[in-house]
Amino acid sequence: MAARSGMNTSGQAGSDAPKVKLTKESFQQGLRIFRFTLPYRTKFIIGTVLLTLSSASTMAFPWLIGKLADAASNNPVLLPNGRAVSINQIALGFGVLILLQGLFSFGRIWFFTQVSEFTVRDIRQALYRKFVKLPIPYFEKNRVGAITSRITSDVGIIQDSFSLTLAELFRQVTTLLAGVVFIMIVSVKLSMFMLLTFPPIVVLAMVFGRKIRGLAKTTQDELAKTNVIVEETLQGINTVKAFTNEQFETQRYTSSLTNTVRAALKSNLYRGGFVSFVIIGLFGGIVLVLWRAATLVQAGQMTIGDLTQFALYTMFIGASVAGLGELYGKVQSTLGASERILEMLDEPTEPTHQPGAQPVQLQGNIEYEHVQFRYPTRPDLAVLNDISFGIQAGEKIALVGPSGAGKSTIVQLLMQFYELSSGQILVDGRDIRHYDLTELRRHIGIVPQETILFGGSIRENIAYGKVTAPDEEIIEAARKANAWQFISSFPEGLDTLVGERGIKLSGGQRQRIAIARAILKNPAILILDEATSSLDSESEKLVQSAMDELMQNRTSIIIAHRLSTIRKVDKILVIDGGRIVEQGTHDELAQFDNGLYANLLKLQFELT
Ligand SMILES: Nc1ncnc2c1ncn2[C@@H]1O[C@H](COP(=O)(O)OP(=O)(O)OP(=O)(O)O)[C@@H](O)[C@H]1O
User: Fold this and answer.
1) Nearest ligand 1 atom, CA 412
2) What's the domain count of the chain?
3) Does 188 share its domain with 244?
């Protein structure tokens, strides 16, 4: 009965849900999740009252059945005022009780569902708001799957517990307590006998349950491993095919599946043992108690009605003890889930969208002063060493150098995606750390190497640069980006869907969408990360002229892979091993015979 959930290989919630030990601290921590329920407390209270009423009416069943049995076996049932109650009257009372029970149950479900749906919505919202504001290093330190499971499976567990677990827990505890009180009222002798029989069985069952929980966790871990394989293969399906490793991957998946099945079988072997133990132990106990009861009835110390009541209450108690064992596991996962959710909600965020931030206007002067940098995930590697350079507003500079030299890192630091290890970056003479982050980023536009298009229309994708832009502005930007030509050739124009559910755009088209996006954003500072994959010369020309249009009157930093595109820039910085090794115009650098730039030029010339 304990930990039945999560035992099989259905892969339902719980696979990524390590449980926590039930301690006072974990309990108090977990309870903090209730702050999300506070706005709905009235509904919660009504639900709880209805739940209490429905539990109470359930507890009245055995009582009435006992009375019916007494009335049927000619033991008159007397009211406090001495009047006898007929069988019909008892049955009528029963009918009313059942009706009420139905109503209470309906109301309880309705109110608790509302509380759980609204609470869960609020938790998801809070988590999402948190996700998008977490700093970049957070996403490098944590796997995407682990982060998303906070908002999916962990929240799912909380939802279950608000809609089911909590109510069940309440019901079982009250049933247990009330049940014990009722059997004591019916017969103290028999109750004592029963209480001596059952607790030892329950204790044994709990020990058994703990073992099963451990095995169930192993099963879940194995299952998680198989899922990782599926995920990896699907994400890298091109690589799998290109390396003709379909069979290798299938083999890998199969052997992982075998492990899962083995673990599942083992845990279910114990579960089977557990169930038969419960049947034999628990029901054996019941038989023992019934036997004792029968002797009491024979001796005239109990009526048949009393016996009926006693038996039924005992079953209620048994069921609630068993139910509690199962709930124990659920409470543990709930606490675990809420702990992980709260942990994430406590993560420090980037200081974006501060209230009352003053809008800033930027000229676009940039100064890097002795910038040193290490990635937080790789503190042993100095990626940038003593980088110093300046760009006047409106100037264009290019960063060139071998792969891994640190070019992208230099521009990421301007966006404040990471904190510098030392040195500073000034924009218009002011340290970027002293700007409001949102205001600073608002003035920086980026055309990345790989354009990410969001699923949706072309309109939405261009408007990502300025979500409030009217159609005329979007079209104007698309025109300037040399994108309007192909967009208007689509039957649905701006409404054409792209991405997963829509058409696939070519590399050059995607870049021009990215350029249109940047044009719409109209930033003072522009970062162009040239695509490494080359386009055909027609598209190349279109993209290049769109870029030229975009760069006009803006401070531009170009991460260049093709040297042909940067002859006209004001300054070229040659980066190697995280340092600036040469700087100057194209003509100046080309003259250094043994210079890195001259060599790169030669190489590219030979290649073409
Ligand atoms: N997010 C990251 N976490 C840890 N290390 C990183 C990260 N991004 C880049 N690096 C490392 O930092 C160094 C510089 O990388 P960077 O991407 O800046 O080079 P690049 O000159 O832009 O290269 P490319 O031309 O290939 O894009 C490399 O050694 C790289 O492995």
Assistant:
1) 18
2) 2
3) yes
Residues with CB under 6 A from ligand 1: 140, 375, 377-378, 383, 401, 403-409
Q: Do 254 and 391 belong to one domain? A: no
* Residue with CA closest to ligand 1 atom 6: 375
Q: Whose CA is nearest to atom 25 of ligand 1?
A: 403
Q: Atom 5, ligand 1: which residue's CA is nearest?
A: 375
Residues 423 and 522 in one domain: yes
Quote the pTM value: 0.75
For residue 562, how far is its CA from the centre of ligand 1 (angstroms)?
A: 18
Query: For the purposes of burial, counting CB atoms within 10 Å of the CB of 270, is it exposed (0-12), middle (13-18) or buried (19 or more)?
Result: middle
Alpha-carbon gap, residue 214 to 153, rounded angstroms = 20
Helices (H), 367-406: none
- Beta-ladder partners of 444: 525
The CATH number for 310's domain is 1.20.1560.10
* Nearest protein CA to atom 18 of ligand 1, as residue: 406
Please give the distance, rounded to the nearest whole angstrom, from the Cα atom of residue 406 to the centre of ligand 1: 6
CB 532 within 8 A of CB 562: no
Question: Is the Cβ–Cβ distance between 569 and 555 less than 8 Å?
Answer: no
> Which is the closest atom of ligand 1 to the Cα of 410?
18
CA angle (44, 48, 54) in 5-degree steps = 145
**Rounded Cα–Cα distance for residues 532 and 353 (Å):** 34
If you take atom 4 of ligand 1, which residue's CA is the nearest one?
Answer: 375
Distance separating alpha carbons of residues 334 and 340, to the nearest angstrom: 10
For residue 224, what pLDDT is reported? 85
Q: Residue 21: what pLDDT? A: 67
Distance 517 CA to ligand 1 centre (A): 25
Q: How far is the CA of 399 from the centre of ligand 1 (A)?
A: 14
Q: Residue 445: what pLDDT?
A: 92
State whether 133 and 282 are in the same domain.
yes
Report the distance separating Cα 484 and Cα 474, nearest Å: 10
Asked if residue 371 and residue 334 are part of one domain, the reply reads: no
Residues 551 and 408 in one domain: yes
Query: What Cα–Cα distance (Å) separates residue 353 from each residue in 362, 439, 518?
Result: 18, 8, 21
User: Given this model, what pLDDT does residue 3 score?
Assistant: 36
Our mutation pick for probing the ligand 1 site, out of 407, 529, 600, counting the most ligand atoms within 8 A of Cβ, is 407
pLDDT by 10-residue block (mean), the chain, 608 residues: 40 48 75 88 93 90 88 79 84 92 93 92 94 92 84 88 83 90 88 80 78 84 88 89 92 94 91 86 81 88 87 85 81 86 91 82 92 92 93 93 91 93 94 92 89 86 90 92 90 86 80 90 90 72 84 90 82 92 88 84 74
User: Ligand 1, atom 28: nearest CA belongs to which residue?
Assistant: 404
Show the domain range for 221: 24-345
By alpha-carbon position, which residue is closest to atom 29 of ligand 1? Answer: 404
Q: Which atom of ligand 1 is nearest to the CA of 136?
A: 1
User: What are the backbone angles phi and psi of residue 75, rounded to the nearest 5°?
Assistant: -100, 95
Rounded to whole angstroms, the Cα distance separating 231 from 554 reads 43
Size (the chain), residues: 608
Which residue from 349, 355, 556, 530 is spatially nearest to 444, judged by alpha carbons? 556
